[in-house]
Design brief:
single chain, mainly beta, Immunoglobulin-like, Jelly Rolls, 3 domains, 7-stranded antiparallel sheet, 1% helix, 53% strand, elongated
């Protein structure tokens, strides 16, 4: 049965065919030809977080005369928010909207849209046979994280001029993917000594601990101020929930600070981590041996370094840090230090945790003026100090007697850029 609404305009009678949503048993007409198509256009699209975008409900009658149409559409309401649903040109101007509802909280996981429209019956009104847009829907991408929402069409019905439901309608739903588009992410702050004074020209190395092959960058600093900055790229370099490790040292390497920070979604949306200030501290009686990073670490190649270290102060250590060439995974795979009662070794465990640092099997003390042997086997592209003879490092001197590269070639004066330091267990 069909329900008819009549409205008198002047002396004429316009008959509106209203297709009920609930408790309505539509009459059907037999069809021998391919049925119409109702689909979401575009079928798939990618949008960025916070973007407003539009999808269309497209109808192709496939030669059938269409007088009325209706649909429900469901979407993930944690990812999308529907802001508008507007009539399209498909059924023409002489129509009436039966229903146009937006419910962003249909349930805890989905929102719902309802739309129904019919042409107004008159003696010269014909059905629509040409394809067109029934309605346009505007969404806002409200996702806090990347995600995919189906735009699921349901209860789709098309009607002919007699109010019969058209059978064999093909329905194609759509999909929207919400992504965080790459954008600059600034990390910046100031470095201070433990007495509150400014530490000009600090060494600031920043590592993302959550990438499969962790990324390390050296922040930009200046000899005349204690400010540092580093520009990363969201999605590519950093995402919400990932941890940045700050390895900061004074110019002479005697004071340092290693601290971690977990990036929040607010940081991503604000475009950076600002005023992340760091205070350098030294443990009483604890010094480090640090070659520092050379001005030019090239040429660089993995291999085995053999040489000696002569401290100028007492150094307690259980860790070895390797400076990597920018943009590489340079690291130490094996290290041994021995002599004068010391025999310590460390092995690399792969690109996990803080892979620039290796932990020795024991804590050891290097005494000033004594000579200690080292063997360091590196991987990828570590920084190398090209210097013959003794090299003045923070905490003493270092010599490379022999370096054998991965191709078996031997060199002298290829000193590994390393730091020996102590971490409280």
């Amino acid at each position: 049965m069909k329900r008819v609404l009549t409205t008198a305009i002047g002396t004429g009678i316009i008959v509106l065919f209203v297709f009920a949503q609930i408790g309505f048993a539509a009459l059907t007409a037999s069809e021998s030809q391919a049925g119409p198509v109702v689909r979401v256009e575009p079928a798939y699209q990618t949008v960025s977080k916070g973007e407003n975008f539009t999808v269309s409900i497209y109808v192709d009658p496939k030669g059938r005369e269409v007088y009325g149409a209706q649909y429900n559409l469901y979407f993930a309401n944690t990812l999308l928010n529907a802001t508008a649903q507007a009539k399209g040109p498909f059924l023409g101007d002489n129509t009436v909207e039966i229903v146009n509802e937006i419910n962003n909280t249909f349930n805890s996981t989905h929102g719902q849209l309802k739309y129904g429209e019919t042409r107004i019956k008159s003696s010269d009104t014909t059905g629509v046979t040409e394809p067109g847009i029934l309605a346009n829907i505007t969404f806002e991408a409200i996702a806090k994280e990347n995600g995919i929402s189906e735009l699921w069409l349901d209860k789709v019905k098309l009607y002919d001029s007699d109010g019969y439901k058209i059978e064999n309608v093909t329905v194609n739903s759509g999909t929207v993917e919400i992504v965080q588009l790459p954008s600059p992410f600034l990390v910046s702050g100031y470095v201070f000594y433990d007495n509150g004074s400014e530490c000009n020209h600090p060494s600031v190395n920043i590592t993302n601990l959550n990438t499969g092959k962790e990324k390390e960058w050296q922040a930009e600093t200046n000899a005349s101020c204690n400010y540092y900055q580093l520009t990363l790229t969201t999605s590519t370099d950093i995402n919400a929930g990932e941890i940045l490790r700050f390895n900061v040292a004074s110019p002479d390497g005697k004071l340092s600070n290693i601290t971690n920070y977990k990036i929040t979604q607010d940081d991503i949306e604000n475009g950076g981590l600002f005023n992340f200030n760091i205070t350098l501290k030294a443990k009483p009686g604890i010094a480090i041996f640090d070659t520092g990073a050379p001005d030019s670490p090239y040429p660089s190649i993995m291999g085995v370094h053999n040489g000696t270290i002569i401290p100028d102060q007492e150094i307690e250590a259980n860790m070895i840090y390797t400076y990597a060439c920018p943009g590489t995974g340079g690291h130490t795979e094996y290290a041994r230090i021995w002599g004068n009662g010391v025999n310590a070794h460390a092995n690399w465990s792969g690109y996990s945790d803080d892979w620039h640092n290796l932990t020795f099997n024991t804590t050891f003390t290097l005494e000033p003026g004594k000579e200690y042997n080292y063997t360091i086997r590196t991987g990828s592209y570590p920084q190398i100090i090209h210097h013959h003879g003794e090299y003045n490092a923070t905490g003493g001197k270092i010599i490379c007697d022999e370096f054998i590269d991965a191709n078996g070639k031997k060199y002298e004066g290829w000193i590994p850029a390393i730091k020996l330091w102590w971490e409280e267990e």
